[in-house]
C-alpha cells in the first residue's frame, strides 16, 4: 500500500495540520456512522497531536471513542503511563464521555512499578480485548489510528524481530520483555492496525531520520513499515526527521 508523506519545517506545523485532518475525519465519520473510533500511541505523539486539536470546539467530542494503541502495564497515574499522557494532553481539555475512554484496567496490576508478571500482563490484555469487543463487537475497525515510531522502527509495542510481529490470532497482545522500558506492555496487533480506515504516523527529530530513510526509501522491513491499512498510511514528519528522504518527498 502506498504511503503519503507530509513534511513540515517545524513540529508546530504538524500540530496544526494534524488538528485540521483529525477534525475533518471526525466530522466525516460522525456524519456517516454517528461515532468516531480512535486509537493513539504514546511517546511524543500525544503532545504533538493535541497542542492544537485540544482547543477545537467544533469537534463533537461526545461521539469519540478513544483507545490506546499500546500501553505500558503501570498504574494509569504512573509517569510511564500512556493514558496519563493522553489525559494531560487531551482528556483534561475536552469532554469525551468517561465511558467512551478506554485506559487499561490497572486494578488488575499487583506490581505497580511496571515489573508485572506474565499472568498479570496477560490479564490486562484480555481485559482490553473485552473493552474493544464492547465497542466494536467482533469486527474491530478503527476510524483512525495515530501512531508514533521509535528510532529502532518499532510502532505500538511491536519491536523489531519480536515474536509479536507474527501474532495474527488476537486483537491485543502482551509482552513482558520490551526492549524499551518498562518491560510489561500490551499492544494492538497487525490485524487491528491493518483493518483501520485511516492510519497516521507522526515522526519528528533527527533521531528518526535513518530509520525513515530505511523504511520509506529502501523499503527495509521494520515494524512501522509493515502497517498496511485500508487507505495509504500518511506520515507527518518534521524537516529533521525527513532530512535523508531527499527529493522523493513531496510536502
Ligand atoms: O514506547 C513507545 O515508543 C513509541 C515511540 O515513541 P517516541 O517518543 O519516539 O515518539 C510510541 O509510539 C509507543 O506508543 C510507545 O509505547
UniProtKB/TrEMBL annotation:
Pathway: Carbohydrate degradation; pentose phosphate pathway; D-ribulose 5-phosphate from D-glucose 6-phosphate (oxidative stage): step 2/3. GO terms for molecular function: 6-phosphogluconolactonase activity. The keyword Transmembrane helix does not apply. InterPro entries: 6-phosphogluconolactonase_DevB (IPR005900), 6PGL (IPR039104), Glc/Gal-6P_isomerase (IPR006148), NagB/RpiA_transferase-like (IPR037171). It catalyses: 6-phospho-D-glucono-1,5-lactone + H2O = 6-phospho-D-gluconate + H(+). The keyword Lipid biosynthesis does not apply. Its EC number is 3.1.1.31. SUPFAM superfamilies: NagB/RpiA/CoA transferase-like. CDD domains: 6PGL. Residues 14-231 form the Glucosamine/galactosamine-6-phosphate isomerase domain. Belongs to the glucosamine/galactosamine-6-phosphate isomerase family. 6-phosphogluconolactonase subfamily. Hydrolysis of 6-phosphogluconolactone to 6-phosphogluconate. This is 6-phosphogluconolactonase. It comes from Chytriomyces confervae.
Amino acid at each position: 500500500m502506498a504511503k503519503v508523506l507530509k513534511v513540515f519545517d517545524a513540529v508546530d506545523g504538524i500540530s496544526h495540520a494534524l488538528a485540521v485532518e483529525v477534525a475533518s475525519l471526525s466530522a466525516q465519520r460522525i456524519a456517516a456512522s454517528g461515532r468516531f473510533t480512535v486509537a493513539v500511541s504514546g511517546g511524543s505523539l500525544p503532545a504533538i497531536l493535541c497542542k492544537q486539536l485540544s482547543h477545537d470546539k467544533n469537534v463533537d467530542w461526545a461521539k469519540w471513542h478513544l483507545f490506546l494503541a499500546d500501553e505500558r502495564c503501570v498504574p494509569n497515574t504512573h509517569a510511564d503511563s500512556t493514558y496519563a499522557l493522553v489525559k494531560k494532553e487531551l482528556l483534561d481539555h475536552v469532554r469525551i464521555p468517561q465511558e467512551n475512554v478506554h485506559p487499561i484496567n490497572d486494578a488488575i496490576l499487583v506490581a505497580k512499578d511496571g515489573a508485572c508478571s506474565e499472568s498479570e500482563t496477560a490479564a490486562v490484555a484480555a481485559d482490553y480485548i473485552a473493552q474493544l469487543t464492547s465497542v466494536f463487537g467482533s469486527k474491530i475497525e478503527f476510524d483512525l489510528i495515530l501512531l508514533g515510531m521509535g528510532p529502532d522502527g518499532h510502532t505500538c509495542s511491536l519491536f523489531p524481530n519480536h515474536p509479536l510481529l507474527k501474532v495474527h490470532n488476537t486483537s491485543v497482545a502482551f509482552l513482558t520483555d520490551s526492549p524499551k522500558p518498562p518491560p510489561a506492555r500490551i499492544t494492538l496487533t497487525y490485524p487491528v492496525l491493518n483493518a483501520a480506515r485511516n492510519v497516521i504516523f507522526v515522526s519528528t527529530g533527527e533521531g528518526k531520520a535513518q530509520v525513515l530513510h530505511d523504511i520509506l526509501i529502501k523499503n527495509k522491513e521494520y515494524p512501522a513499515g509493515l502497517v498496511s491499512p485500508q487507505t495509504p498510511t500518511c506520515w507527518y514528519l518534521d524537516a529533521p526527521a525527513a532530512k535523508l528522504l531527499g527529493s522523493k518527498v513531496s510536502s
